[in-house]
Amino acid sequence: MKTKIPDFVKTNQFGLLLLVIVFVLLFTFTTDGFSSRFNIYALSRVVAIDIMIGLAMMVVILTGGLNLSLGALGVSAAMFGGWCMESMGIPISISIVLILLFGSLLGWINGFVTVKTGVHSFIVTLATMSIYFGFMTLLTEAEAFRKLPETFTDFGSMKLFNKYVSPLLLLSIFTCFILFYLFKFTDIGRKLIAAGANPDAAELSGISVNRMFIYCHMLSGFLAAVAGIMLTARIGAAIPSMAGHLGFDWLLPAFLAPVIGGTLLSGGKVTVFGTMLGAVLVTLINNGLYLIDVGEFWVRFFLGLILLFAVLLDRAREYFTSKNSIVS
Amino acid sequence: MNDLLKKDWFGLGIVIIFGSILISIFKPAFISPFNLYVLMLSVSLMLVVAMSQMIIIAIGQMNLSVGAIGGLVAISFTGLMEVYDLSIFLSMCIGLGIGVICGFINGYITVKTGISAFIITLATLYIFKGMNLGITEAQPFYDIPDAVKYFGNAKIFGPIPFLVIIPVIITFFMWILMNRTTLGRYMLAYGNNVQSSELMGISSTKIVVYAHIISGLLAAIGGMLVVCRLQLGTPNIGDSWLLPSFAAPVIGGAILAGGKVDVIATAFGVILVAIISQTLVIFKIDPFFVQIFLGFMILIAVFINRYREYREERRNKVFSNE
After folding, report:
1. Cα A267 to Cα A111: distance, rounded to the nearest angstrom
2. How many Å apart are CA B48 and CA B54, to the nearest integer?
3. Which domains does chain A have, with CATH numbers?
């Protein structure tokens, strides 16, 4: 009497995909302009950055920690990039390499301090958040870099596929595939997961857990720097306040995407495509809330509620799957 | 004397005393009545906020929504008085009630779902802040009764502000709670080791919910004190509380894994942070440096705590070998 359900239907990603489809249909039929070319293009630019932010947080959540300094780090890297390109006149390609190195360096500081003090990365990144952001504001004197090279800003406003999609989104999807490959098929990726899942066991089997944790933080800094570059390209300028005070505007998408996507907060489990779908869902809902006109001041309220429901739903799913597995 | 040296607050106290003497030698303006008045005001506001965070650190969790609760209560308090013409006392009671409800929501969801308090309070941070912005549409309430304004400005005698009374009472009660009551000891036991505290028969639900309720209540008081101080209710009250709320307990030697907090050391942490921020202002250093400094102070405190733990471990090892 039991019908066989394919395995992928039970996964979190499948549920997410359904939700994304439901929301797309809902918004297409209930609001004007959701499926317009302009809105889809705008969505693709936003979602690209949300995916990158989500991935940057995901790789730290893997260690069982978190990175509060994500926004501050991303903005600092972007401002550094603006300085390189505008004030120093360094060519774009070299600038981008420098930005990525800079982001990784800031990530390394987070990781190094966390590992050396043995304190939860929350408090370390809380401190580095204000340090990075403070130095950034101090050095830039809160001035934006608005005269970036045109080839760089043109990339941000380029339109592909019949003007529906921004190249930024392709970059994010490409990054997803690389990370998927890293965690699934490479030696170092498996080590990172092992270190996050059970540090003691990993240490006993000869993995340097501390080094792995530092790598995770460096990767997070790297991805945050990528997000910073993308945001700069999208806006066409590097602005100190582009992620809000202390980079706090990035934190909600940063946590929402991996958590909705099924990444365990206790560490040791990553879902790259879950995070991607999570980011898509968040952007969709955000966009839909504006389109159905709940009022811009209530958007935050609803996003908070959605995060709450997402984690509760996830907990319920876990509960039912564990119950089912006991029965069968 | 040896016992005294082991206390967390002792070292901090010495740093504060010698630091203050040193600063006042270089800049006599530091001990001017006006400066002391400003210093005490900032200490009294941050003291309440730090206590609100400290009690959650005691049970091994964190509360990101402290500032959001404070802001929501602040605008409710002023809004009720301005728009609905309620009496000060009634508005205050409703404000405290909102703080308790917010805390209850945080605690209840955290303990019933077993999801990390970080994520729950991040969600409620957005919910409370969103309600705040939705209600006010980012506009402040200006019409504050004179009695409230007076309370925020009056001085008891000399440079001592009236406002300082409430935080001092709160600190006293917090000390009693953490050191002299069963509830406080249970909270520390829970923070230290959840499993063994449950095996001892301590109800997790009760402990976590109570801790969050107290945290919400203190955040509410903090929000209303800021209203008295600023003489208006702006929606962005509480936005900048996150960093200092963690800084003071951590500098005071609290261990974030839970189970160890020190009320007096946290209070000293608040004073130290206030003195340093004030000094940077007196020496006309860029205000953004204050932020950087706070960040560095947290890191230094974390390193010192780690070093002390390490020394303790080594000492224990020597004893166990004998």
Report:
1. 15
2. 10
3. 37-142+156-316 (1.10.3470)
∠ Cα B320 B321 B322 (to 5°): 95
- Number of structural domains chain B divides into: 1
Candidates A116, A130, A312; nearest CB to B243:
A130
State whether residue A305 sits within 8 Å of chain B by CB: yes
- pTM comes to 0.84
Cβ separation A138–B115 shorter than 8 A = no
- The tens digit of pLDDT for each residue in A230-241 reads 998 888 888 888
Cα–Cα distances in angstroms (integers) from residue B100 to residues A102, A134, A140, A189, B66, in the given order: 44, 34, 42, 45, 12
Residue B305 lies in a domain: no
**What is the DSSP secondary structure assignment for residue A248, as one 8-state letter?**
G
pLDDT at A256 over 90: no
Alpha-carbon gap, residue A117 to B307, rounded angstroms:
8
- Nearest chain B residue to A140 by CA: give it: B288
Contact assignment for A297 to B243 by CB distance below 8 Å: no
Which tokens belong to A159?
């339109």
Is this prediction's ipTM beyond 0.90?
no
The answer to whether A128 contacts chain B (CB < 8 Å) is yes
The answer to whether position B114 is within a domain reads yes
Q: Which domain holds residue B160?
A: 31-245
Question: Is B251 within the bounds of a domain?
Answer: no
Contact (CB, 8 A) for A59 and A224? no
